[in-house]
Fold each of these.
Amino acid sequence: MEIRNIQKTGDMHYLYLPTSWCREHKIGSRSKVSIGQSSDGSLVISPQIVEAKPKHLKLSISEDDEDVIHKLAVACYINPAGSFEINFEKEMDFTRLLNQKRLISLESVEIDKKQISCHGAVSVADPESLIKTMTKKIKNMITVMQKAYDKELIDRYEDEIDRSKMLIDKSIISSLTFERATKSKTIDLYYISLISKDLERMVDHLICVSSKESEFLTIVHDIIDQLHNIMENTPSLNCKTALQFVKKVTKIGGFEVKDIKSYDKERIRLSLVTIAEIVTDWAITKEIEK
C-alpha cells in the first residue's frame, strides 16, 4: 500500500492520483472518475465506466453435429453479443436441434434449416439476484418432490434452474468484458459463478432421487435453505457462518456406490461438499477485506 500526503488549498483537500494507475486506465485531464465509500469508511476511486456497445456476431460453419452446434449456440448466447447468427453450409434437420433442451430454452433464439440467430439477447446486470433465485427454485423443487411428485413440474423447475445458471454466466461474462457496474465485486462474481456451476450439477442428479427418499431430500432441502440465507446476506458472510454451513453439509455421510440410486446421492453429496468449500473460501476472502 502506498501512503500519500493530503494537500490543502483553502477549504479544499486533495491528493494526486498515481501516474501508473492513470496510465493503466487511460485517465487524462478531461477524464472523470467515480468516488464511493465502502462499509469501513474507505473511499473507493474508480475510473468512469465506459460501456462498450455489444457487437453483432456472425459465424459460418460446416459442422453438422447437433451436440457441437448446441455448445456453440450456448457460448454465443452467454457472451455479451448484442445479436448473433450462425450460418450452416448445408441445411440441418432443425428438429434434431430442437431436441436439445437447453437450446430451445434460450430466450430470443430462432432456429432455421440453415441458421441459428438471436436478436436483442436478454441481459441481466445482477448475478447476486440470480443465485438467490436459483437456490429458491431448488428449495421449491425439492418440496414438490416430497409432497406432490409432479414430473412435469419438476422438469420445469430443472429447466428454470439451468436457465438461471446460463443467465449467471451471461451476466458475469458481460460484467467482466464490458466492465459494467454491478453491485458485486469481481471476486464475488468469481464465487457466485463457482457455486452456480455446482448447484446445476447437483440438480441434474437430484431430479433422479425418488420421492421415497424423504429423509435425504429433507436434509438437502435444509442445506439449500441455509445456502439461500447465506446468498441473501453475502455482505455479512464470515468464518463462523461458513463453518456452520460446512458442519451441516458434513453430516451427510458418504454413500457406497452400488447402483444408480446410490451414485446419484453420492454425486449430490459431493456437489454440496464442493459448495461448502467455496463458501468457506469466500468467507475467508471477506475476512481479509475487512
Amino acid sequence: MTSKDRQRELERARYERVQARLAQQQAAAKKRTKITAIAAAVAVVGIGVTVAVLTSGGKSDKTSPAASAPSTSAPTTAATGTATPDATPSTSASPEKIGYQKAETPSKDVGMPTYDAAAAAKPYTATIHFGSGDLTFDALTTKAPYTTYSFEYLVKKGYYDNTKCHRLTTQGIYVLQCGDPTGTGSGGPGYQFQDENLTGATYPAGTIAMANAGPGTNGSQFFIVYKDTQLPPNYTPWGKVTSGMDVVTKIADGGVDTGGGDGKPKLPADIKSVTIK
C-alpha cells in the first residue's frame, strides 16, 4: 500500500467517525442546517435572527457558518431558536465521499484541485486584503487539510479577487460571510468536499470556518467570527486570525444596510485580493 493510499484510508476512517457523531447530533435537530425555508418560517413568527453561511458552488455556497441561497436568510436551530449558518445546495450532499466532487455550475470557473496530501500538510499564513485594511490568519493545515488546500488553490487562481463579503450578522451569531464571487450568497466553485475538524469544534472570535448546506457540502464560502459565537460543531474551523481583526469589527460596527441584524454589511466589505506565504 502506498503512502498516499494509507493517507486516504486514515482520512476516510477519521471522517467516518466524525460523521457518526454528526448523525447523533442531527437526529435531535436535523432541520437546523439544511433547509433554508426554515428561515422564512422563523422570520414570520419572529424567532431569532437569520444568518448566512458560506458554501461552495452554483446555486448556493457551502463553506462556513450556514450559508443560504438568499443572501439575507438562514435557518435557526430547532433546539434553541438561535441563528445558524446554512446553505442551499443545488446538488445532493455526499457526506460519504472523500475529496473534491463536482457540484453546481461554478460562479467563477477555475477548475478543481487535485489533492496532494504532502502539499496540503504544509503550514501557511494567508492575508485577506480588504479595501479597508488587511486581515491575516494561520491556516490549520494539519486539522483541515482538504479545506485549507482548497482555499490555497482558489487563492492562487484569483477566485476571491475583487469580491464582496455578502453577509453580516450582528444578533445571535457574529460572523462576516465571504467567498461568493456573485456577492449573493448563492455562488461557489463548482465542487464540494467533506467536513473536517468538527470534533469538539467551537467558534470563538478570530475563528475562520466553512459554511455548508449539510454534511459534505463545503465549497468556497467561509465566515469570519468577530465575536465569540455559539454554534453546533457542524462547520469546519480551518483558520485562526492573528492580526487585523479590527478590520472586521469595524465593518460589524457599521451594521447591516437594512438596519436589522442579518444582511449585507452597510460599510464596504470588499476583498481586493488574498495572498499566501
Amino acid sequence: MPSSPYRARITALGTYVPPRLLTNDDLSQMVATNDEWIRTRTGIIERHLVEPGMATSDMAVAAARACLESRGFDPARLRMLIMATVTPDMMFPSTACLVQHKLGAKNCWGFDLSAACSGFLYALTTGAQLVASGAAEHVLVIGADTMSSIIDYQDRATCVLFGDGAGAVLLERAEAGDETGLLDFEHQIEGEGAAYLYMPAGGSRRPASAETVAKRMHYVHQEGQQVFKYAVRKMYEVCHGLLERNHITPAQLDCFIPHQANMRIITATGERLGLDAERIIINIGRYGNTTAATIPLAMADARARGLLRPGSLAMLAAVGAGYTAGASLVRWSI
C-alpha cells in the first residue's frame, strides 16, 4: 500500500440479523432437499430471513446504530458512509441515501458499492483510502444484503445457500505511533465469470417485463461447480500473494476471516495456506451466505471467541460474482 499521511483503523463494529429463522428442515418442505444434503455440501444449518416489508436499509441502519452506539459516536458527527450491497431497496436513490436519512446523519455524504460477496472488503478499502489520504476523518462502512428478496425458493441449488444480515464498522484516523489499522489489500476482478453467477433481468439489458417475470429471471442464477472451482483457487491466490508481499507467514496470523459462501471453500483455502483450524472463523452454519454482511458478522464472532483483540493480526478474504476477489490485512484496534 502506498505511503499516506494517515492510517485508517476500525474503532467500532455492529451487526444485525433478523430474528426469523429458516432451517434446513424448513427448506425440505419447500424443495427436494434435506438437512444432511445441505450440511455436507455447504455447512449450513439455518439462515435468518427478514419479515415481509423489511428492506436492506432497515438492517443496515440497525447494524450502523449498534456500531456507532458502541463507540459513543453521534450520527450527527458522521461525514461519510459507504454502503456495500447487491440488494438495494430500489434502483435509485441509493440505499446510502436512505440509511443516511434514517440515521439522522444530516452532514454526511456517501454512496452504494456493488461487488457482491466482495462488497464489504471493497468498501472497507475505499473507506480506508479516503481516511488515509486525509479526505475523511472517519467513514462508516456497511455491508448488508436481503438475499431472500432475490432467491428462487423453487431452485434448490441456490435457495439453501443464502440468508439476510448486516454489519458495519467505523473507520477513523489512527493516532501517531498507533500500529493498528488496515495494513494492505489485494483486489481483483475477472469479468469472464459474469456468466456463472448473476441475476439475468432487471437492468438495462433486460428490463422487467411479463416475460422476464414468467421466466423467473429476477432471481440469482448460479453454475455452482464453476463458481466453486474459481473460489477455491482465487481465494488462496489473493491471500497467498498478500501475505508474501508483506513478508508475513500464515503462522503469524491470529485469525483468518473469510467470506462465508461454503464451508468446503473455507477449509480448502485454510489447508492450502497452512492455517490451524482453530484460527479460521467459520459461522456459515448459523447464517448462510449473507453476501456483503458475512465478514462483519464473522468479525463479531471472532471477537466473541477472543481471536480478535487489540493488536491481533487478521486476514480478511472474499470471492464473489463478477468475478470479484480480494483480501485485506488488518491489525485489530478494539
Amino acid sequence: MIYVDNGATTFPKPKSVIDKLVDCSLHYAANPGRSGHKLAMKMDREIYETREKLCKFINATNPLNIIYTFNATDSLNLAIKGVVKKNDHVITTSMEHNSVLRPLNELKKLGIIDLSIVYADKYGVIDVNKIFDEVRENTSLIVTTQMSNVFGTIVDVEKIGAFCKEKNILYLVDAAQSIGVLDIDVQKMNIDLLAFPGHKALFGPMGTGGLYIKDKIKVNPLKQGGTGSFSQDINQPSIYPDSLESGTSNGVGIVALGAGVDFINEVGIKNIREHENELKNYFIENLKDNKDIILYGPLDERQGAVVSLNVKGMDSSKVSFILSEDFDIYTRAGFHCAPLAHKTIGTQRLGAVRFSFGYFNTIEQVDKCIKALEKIIERNKK
C-alpha cells in the first residue's frame, strides 16, 4: 500500500500518537472541567498541556487563546463569522478551500459583507500586491491560505501580515496544509487569527483542530452552552477559551494531538519539510518531460509537497481509481473542495489527480507512483 493522500489526512499516524490515544481512552477519558474527581482533573491537565504545546509551536503568547475546534472548517467558520460585521469588506483569493469561500459567500448572499476575490496566476501563485490593491475604507478582514490544498503553492503570509498590521486590518490564515510543515510564527508574521486542523500534518486524530486568536481580538461565539465554568450563570462566559468551547470537546483526540506535536518537535519540522520536498522534487523531475502528463503549479520552491496532475486523454477520477484498484496507490481526484483554484489553473472541467506526500512516504514509493502512471499511460494508448 502506498498512501499519498496526506493533504486530506496524514496516514499512518506515529505510534506515539496511537499509544497516547489508547492510554487516555483506557485510563482517564473522563469529562474535563465537569467534575471534581481525579480522572476529570487529569484529563483537564492533559488537555491544557496540549494547549501549551500548540501555543509554543506557533510562538503565540497565551495558551488560553488557543481555541479547540473539531477541524479547520470549524475554525474558519468561527473566525470569519465571529469577527465580521454588517457592511464590512473582506478580501480573499481564488486559491482558497470551500471552508473559506462558502462562509464568505454565504455572508455576501445575506447582504452582510462585500467580498473581493483576488485571482492567482496560471501557476496558482498569488501576487500579494493585488490583494493590497483591493483594500477599501471598510476592509476589515483579509483571509488567505498559507499553502494551497490543490497545487501546493505557498503564500507570502509574512508580507500580508505586515501590511494588515500597518492598515489595521485583521488577517486570518488558513493553515490546513501548512502547519506542521512550514514554520509559523504568529508574532513575526503578524497573524491575528490562525485556523488549523489536528488530523493533517500535526499527526493528530480526526475531529481535532484549533483557532489561535491574538490578544485583544474579540471573536463572537457561534454557539452557546455548557462550558464547565460559571455554571451558575445563564449567560455565556466572555473569557477565552470558555466563550468559544461550549459542549464536551474531543478530549481523547486533543490529548493525542499533543503527542503529534511532540513527534514533530522530536523529528524537527525542518527535517520533515526537507524530506517531503525531496519526494516532491523527485516526483516532478521524473515526470516533467513526459508528454502524456500535465503537471500543475510552479513546480519549484514556491510549491509544497502537493503535486496535482492529469494524464492526457483520461478522466482524473478514472486515473485515481486505477491507481487504487490496480496498484494499491491512494490519491485524491476531482476538485478538492476548491473550485476557484481549479478555475484559476484551467482544470475546472477535468479536475486533477493529487499526490500529497507525507513524512512516512519514501523515494521507493514515489518511484512506484511514477512507474504506475507510466503503465496507465501505456495501457491507455492500446
